[in-house]
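[step 3/7] fold_predict: job queued, chain A
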Amino acid sequence: MTDDKHPVRPQRGRASFLATLFISLCVLIVAFVVVGYAVGWVTFQQDDQRERATIEVETGKVRRAAEEAVDKGQELLQRADDQIKNLNKEDVKEDSHQMNGTEGTPGENTDGAARDKTDTPQG
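[step 4/7] structure written:
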């Protein structure tokens, strides 16, 4: 029994799933080869004397590029960590000034006027 609002969807079989997976993997491999060729990680050579073609993956170049990416990532994380620490220090300073009843520099009221010892009530 089908409902016009909720039509019954045919279930995909295992073969359909495997075909989709296979096509996805092929697309990823082709994309890797194209990008690798564009960057210089993958080279193609043809030997006319032996009638063969070879594909070489320059693993050293790939390794160096990966190491550079990791180094840049570490630098980025270090800068972010330093900025967060600086923000936390500023928050702590603001909190301590608010707890002391001051928001500016010590010795100033919140309205900016200098404190006078004679204004305080003596008991």
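[step 5/7] annotate
The longest helix spans residues 59-99.
The helical segments are 14-39, 59-99.
exit 0
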